[in-house]
Each structure stands twice: as structure tokens, then as C-alpha cells.
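Hi all, posting the design record for the shared folder.

TITLE: backbone redesign
STEP: 1 of 1
STRUCTURE INPUT:
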């Protein structure tokens, strides 16, 4: 009981409760006004119709728009208020302009080599259009001279991060969606503290909602007192606002701009199976050593400078590393890229779709959530019906029940099309990876769901022809061996369950 009371009276819990109370009071006042006044009833009816028309006219995903329209028209008061409060982002234009200004300033520092792009397009013709698209539409260059190490489990990824952090000479840049106090965070923080004493610059950035109940409210102050620079993306406030929708879901660790990590792993003990949640936690990640690491570092610096007023050009120039000629022939190319919810380019979705369409033999996918929009679902089904071996591995044990049920609602039509769907039997699958023909892959933070593809800041790396692709394939094949294949027998549901799944599909884009 004492433990429960302590949890309840934590400042962050009280802030969350305050927000819920605001919702209840606000909803009660509005509801009373509507039921007792023809004026307010008419006002909200017209407002809901106006919002529905606005959704129709606004550029965006049709499924996303349909979900909002249904909500607004079925629940004129609450649906309309929910849309106005949580979908209309009041600061995205200003924030996007700042991001664009930063990215424009970074262009001369991206080590963009036209020769490398052309050589890559010639060496990997099936993926030449994707290389070109990311390079020209997103200014995300293709890099050579980059070693890629693949880590099939969070424990190995964590040990590699600790090893490289200990080698830092100039700086450590750290950006993760979730940071939780425990073995993992404490060991990394200890190294950061030691490195600061050695004169190494350390910058830490994390998402406030992602780490909301996992870090103390004054963590930023504590880090700064230790000499660690810290920025918290989109801090939570106990006031009803539209500013909380977009989150920083990225995961980047850069050491001196020469070595960088990314993948699905957050900084919490369940990711390295020191804490059991939802069975065995399966995750993965990669390390880039060489020019490609600078590409990930620039993605970190974009958001770092966007959430504060800095002299970003001078800062980035000082941080840019120099690279010696590699002592050995390094196979393959890498193309790190970021995705932002504030721009008009859905780089995450576009990369996934273009890779699926490029497949000639097989497509293997790791994803914790499978809430597909029409483009991705069509691409996967078209690939399978064209003779491509499509396999998708999702979790057997879920972390979010409604999301898991919605994920399963897609299984029938995928299996009908010839796609093999597996659920990771030992526990929770959190990796985000897609492998194409053993010749290309994308590894990073992007889930196959609407929130990841359209509402979060994300990052990933496209790998072309790297030796690590063999390791990714072996890991996926080994994982399939211990996973359960979903057949039509397992997917035979009762009528009530099918109805519930259909309803959830209608609102899937809002999850």
C-alpha cells in the first residue's frame, strides 16, 4: 500500500491525473451545454460537419481521414474536440521551417559524393531509384567506406555500445525514445560521467512521453549538473493541448561521428532481458563504422538544434570528423535517413514500399505492430501474388492489447494472398527490419503502423550489398524456426470477434 501511495503521489503521476481530470471536467461542461441549449447543440453539429469537410479537403492518407471523419460524425462533441485538440498541430509549420533551415545549412557538410551515388546505382540497379529518391528528395546521401555490424539481440547491441562509448575521444551523442533508470541506463550514464571528466562533450536527448514514468522529472537538471548537455523533446504539460501528438521515436548513439548505432533498442532493462516483460524480448540493431556514421550524426544534430536556438552551422563544422582511407575493401553501401511528421514527405513509408516493389525472390519483415495503410498492404499482397516469398514476424505476446488485436485483424487477407505470417513464440518481437533478396535491407526505428509512419520522428539505414545482410538473413531464418506460423485454422474467429476486429480496423490509423 505504501508503494502504491508513493507511486500515486509522484509528480509525474499527479500531472497525468490532472490531465485526465481536465478531460472529465471539460467534457462534462460541454455535454451539459449541448443537452440544455439548442444554440450549443446546433453549434457543435455545424462544427463537426465543418471539421469533417476540413478532413476531406486536407491532403493525407485516405484511411487516416476516414477514421477521423467517422469519429467526428459518430461523436459530434467529443470526436470534434478530440480532433481539434490532438490532431491540429499548432507549431508544426514553424518547427518544419526551422528543420528545413538547419538541413539546408548542413548540405555542404554531408559529404555527398555524386560519384558514389552513380557507382551505387550501377552496382545495385534494382535499388537505384530508391538511392536516387533519398539522395535528391531528402538530401540523404549514399555512403561508401562504411563497415556494418549486425546485432541480432539487445544484449549484444548494448555491450557493443558500451565498448564504443569507452573509446570516445571528442563527443558522445545520445538520442533515444525511452530512457529508464536501471542497469542499462546506469552503466551508460557512468561512462558518460567519466568521459565528461576527460573533456569529452556529451549530449543526451530523449522523448519526454517515452520516458515519462521511467525517469525522474529533474533528470535534465541532474545531467546538466554533471556536465552533460541534455534536451528533452516535446516536454509534457498537464494542460490539454495539441502539441503532444508528435514524438521523437529515434534511436541514435554517435561516438565522434565515426561510429554510430541505431535499431529498435531503447535504454530500458527489458530490451536486454534483465527485466522480463512479455516474455523474451527480441530486438536488434546495427553499428556503422566510417562515413555512414556521420550521416546518422547529422540526423541527431537536426533535431538537437531544432528544439533550441543554437549556432548550428558553426557547431556542425567543428564536429565533422575526418576519415582516413580504409585499410581494407569494404563491401556495400549505406544510406541513413530520417523521417519527420512535420514535412510532406513520408520517407519511411516510401522506403518500405519501394523496397518491397524491388524484390525478385523474397521479403522478410520484423515488426512489433502491423497496422497497414493501403499502400503497404497492396505492396505486400502484390508481391506475394507475383510469386515473391513474403514472410512477416510479429510478437506472440503483446505489449498493447488493442494494437495486437488490430495487428491480427490483418492476418487473414495477408495469409489468403500467400504471405506467411509468424508470431515470435518466446515473447515480444520489437525489432524493425526488412530484408530484400539478401541484397538490401532497412534497419532502424520504423514500425509498420500509422503512428510510426506519419506521427513520429524516425530514423533508419538502408543497407546495399553489405556482408551484414547474410547475418540478418540467418537471424530471421533462425527466428522463424522458433515462431508459430499463422494458418487459416488459427485465424478462424467467431462472429463477435470478427465484428470487434472490423471496428478496430476502422480506427486503426488513430492507434
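Okay, here is what came back for every position:
SEQUENCE:
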Amino acid at each position: 500500500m505504501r508503494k502504491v501511495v508513493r507511486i500515486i503521489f509522484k509528480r509525474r503521476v499527479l500531472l497525468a491525473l490532472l490531465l485526465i481530470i481536465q478531460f472529465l471536467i471539460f467534457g462534462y461542461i460541454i455535454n451539459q451545454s449541448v443537452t440544455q441549449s439548442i444554440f450549443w447543440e446546433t453549434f457543435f453539429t455545424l462544427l463537426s460537419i465543418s471539421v469533417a469537410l476540413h478532413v476531406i479537403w486536407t491532403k493525407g492518407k485516405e484511411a487516416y481521414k476516414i477514421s477521423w471523419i467517422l469519429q467526428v460524425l459518430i461523436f459530434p462533441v467529443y470526436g470534434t474536440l478530440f480532433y481539434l485538440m490532438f490532431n491540429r498541430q499548432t507549431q508544426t509549420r514553424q518547427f518544419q521551417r526551422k528543420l528545413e533551415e538547419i538541413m539546408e545549412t548542413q548540405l555542404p557538410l554531408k559529404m555527398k559524393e555524386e560519384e558514389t551515388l552513380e557507382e551505387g546505382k550501377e552496382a545495385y540497379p534494382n535499388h537505384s531509384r530508391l538511392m536516387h529518391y533519398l539522395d535528391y528528395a531528402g538530401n540523404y546521401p549514399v555512403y561508401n567506406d562504411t563497415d556494418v555490424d549486425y546485432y541480432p539481440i539487445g544484449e549484444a547491441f548494448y555491450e557493443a555500445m558500451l565498448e564504443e562509448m569507452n573509446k570516445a575521444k571528442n563527443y558522445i551523442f545520445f538520442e533515444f525514445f525511452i530512457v529508464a533508470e536501471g542497469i542499462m541506463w546506469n552503466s551508460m550514464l557512468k561512462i558518460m560521467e567519466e568521459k565528461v571528466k576527460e573533456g569529452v562533450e556529451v549530449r543526451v536527448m530523449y522523448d519526454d512521453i517515452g520516458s515519462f514514468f521511467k525517469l525522474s522529472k529533474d533528470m535534465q537538471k541532474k545531467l546538466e549538473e554533471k556536465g552533460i548537455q541534455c534536451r528533452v523533446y516535446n516536454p509534457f504539460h498537464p494542460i490539454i493541448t495539441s502539441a503532444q501528438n508528435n514524438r521523437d521515436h529515434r534511436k541514435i548513439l554517435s561516438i565522434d561521428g565515426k561510429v554510430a548505432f541505431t535499431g529498435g533498442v531503447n535504454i530500458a532493462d527489458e530490451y536486454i532481458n534483465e527485466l522480463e516483460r512479455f516474455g523474451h524480448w527480441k530486438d536488434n540493431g546495427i553499428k556503422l563504422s566510417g562515413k555512414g556514421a556521420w550521416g546518422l550524426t547529422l540526423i541527431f544534430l537536426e533535431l538537437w538544434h531544432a528544439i533550441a536556438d543554437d549556432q548550428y552551422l558553426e557547431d556542425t563544422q567543428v564536429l565533422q570528423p575526418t576519415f582516413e582511407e580504409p585499410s581494407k575493401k569494404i563491401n556495400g553501401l549505406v544510406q541513413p535517413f530520417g523521417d519527420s511528421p512535420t514535412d510532406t514527405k513520408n520517407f519511411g513509408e516510401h522506403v518500405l514500399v519501394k523496397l518491397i516493389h524491388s524484390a525478385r525472390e523474397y521479403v522478410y519483415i520484423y515488426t512489433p505492430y502491423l497496422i497497414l495503410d493501403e499502400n503497404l498492404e497492396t505492396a505486400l499482397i502484390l508481391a506475394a501474388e507475383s510469386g515473391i516469398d513474403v514472410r512477416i514476424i510479429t510478437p506472440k505476446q503483446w505489449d498493447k492489447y488493442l494494437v495486437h488485436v488490430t495487428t491480427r485483424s490483418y492476418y487473414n487477407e495477408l495469409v489468403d494472398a500467400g504471405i506467411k505470417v509468424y508470431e515470435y513464440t518466446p515473447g515480444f518481437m520489437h525489432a524493425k527490419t526488412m530484408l530484400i533478396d539478401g541484397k538490401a535491407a532497412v534497419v532502424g526505428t520504423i514500425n509498420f503502423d500509422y503512428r510510426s509512419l506519419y506521427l513520429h520522428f524516425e530514423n533508419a539505414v538502408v543497407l546495399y550489398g553489405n556482408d551484414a545482410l547474410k547475418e540478418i538473413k540467418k537471424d530471421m531464418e533462425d527466428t522463424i524456426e522458433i515462431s508459430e506460423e499463422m494458418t487459416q485454422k488459427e485465424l478462424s474467429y467467431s462472429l463477435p470477434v470478427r465484428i470487434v476486429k472490423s471496428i478496430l480496423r476502422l480506427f486503426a490509423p488513430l492507434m
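COMMENT: The radius of gyration is 23 Å.
Let me know if anyone wants the other runs.
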